[in-house]
Amino acid sequence: MGAIQVSVFGASDIGRVRKNNEDNFVVCDLTTGEVEMSASLRRHLLGPRGTLFMVADGMGGEASGEVASQLCSVTVPKRLYENLKSVAKVSETNFVLMLREAIEYANQIIYQKALANANYKGMGTTTTAAALFGPYLFVAQVGDSRAYLARNKVLVQLTRDQTFLNYLADIGAEMPADPEKDSRKSILTQAVGTSESVDVKVTYAKVCQGDQMMICSDGLYNMAKPEEIRRITTGPDDLPAKCKALISSANQGGGMDNVTVILAEFSGPGLSPPPPSGEVTFKQFREEDFQAPSPTEK
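^ that's the sequence the OP posted. Answer follows.
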C-alpha cells in the first residue's frame, strides 16, 4: 500500500451574537496520539491506525455546552487511540466499532457529569467524527454537525442532520412549505450526553487522490449560502485561507451562532485516482461490506 498524505487545518469562531464559544474541534493522529495542530500534524503521512477529525457543537444553559463539547473532544480521541493501541492488528470493521464505542463512552462521561452536578443538567453536544483509515473515510455522527467530501468542484454531504424535521420526513408526516424556515429543523433528535445511550450513525466513502473533506458546525451551513460554501471549499486558496473565508462568510450572513470548520486534503500513491465520472459515492456502514470472501466465493 502506497503512502497517503494528509493536509489539515481547523478554526473556530464565536460568531457575532453569542457570548461564548460552545464549539470544539480536534484532529488526532491515531498512530502517534498527537492532537496539537502543529506543523507536523497539519501535514502528515497517514499512519497505520489512521487520523481522526472531529467537530463538537455543545448545548445547554450558561457555559455547560462548552463543558460538554470540550469533554467530548478530549475523550473521543483519547479513548479511540488507547483502544486501537491495545490490539495488534486492526480491520476496518474493528476500527468502526472502536470509533463508535469511543463516542458511546464520551456519552456516558458527559451524561454522568450532568447527573452529578445540577449546573450541568441537560448539557450535551453534537459529534461528527470523520476518520481516515487507509483509503476509507468513516464518518460517525450524532446531532447535526456535517461532514462533506469535495471532488471535481462538487461538495457531497456524507451525513444527515439528526433533527426533528428529518424525523418527521422519515415517518411520512406532512412537511412544512418552507423547511429552511421551520424551527423544527434545529431541534435535535439526539445528542451526546443528553441521555443514557446514543445511536451513532456511521457512513463511509472511499477517498481518491485530491479529495477534500470538510466538517462543520451548523453555525456555518445555517448562515453561509451553499453555493458560497462550495465555491470557497473547492477554490484554489490554501486550507487556512479557506477556513478563514468560510467563517467570514458565516459571519457576514448574520453570525448568529458559533462557527467551526475543519478542512483536510488527501493525496499520494496510496489512493486511487478519481473515477472518470468524478462522482462521490458513500453508504451506511455495514460489517458485511468489509468481510473477506470465503474461498468458495472467490
